[in-house]
Specification:
By secondary structure, this protein is mainly α. The chain has one domain (2-74). It is 68% helix and 0% strand. It is built from four helices and no strands. The N and C termini lie far apart (55 Å).
Length: 79
């Protein structure tokens, strides 16, 4: 599978880099919180590597809800 050949080594390198950066980051910082959240959800974030049916990103969903979100802001003060 192409995803496992191309993406998995890069994701493993990213995981190692995140762990190394977390060890160098102060516990109370925003960066530490972001790294902790990423590491906590790591398995869910890389699940697209195991199956070809999962998309790499969620651009289709974001594009589908964008008109609703923009409209909600624009329609707030209309009568």
């Amino acid at each position: 599978m192409l995803r496992q050949q191309a993406s998995l080594p890069r994701l493993q390198a990213l995981l190692e880099w995140l762990i190394a950066q977390r060890l160098r980051t102060a516990d109370a910082s925003g960066l530490a919180h972001a790294i902790d959240n990423t590491l906590k959800r790591w398995r869910a974030q890389i699940c697209y590597v195991d199956s070809g049916i999962w998309p790499i990103d969620n651009n289709m969903v974001e594009n589908a809800i964008r008109p609703i979100t923009l409209g909600r802001r624009n329609w707030l003060f209309t009568d």
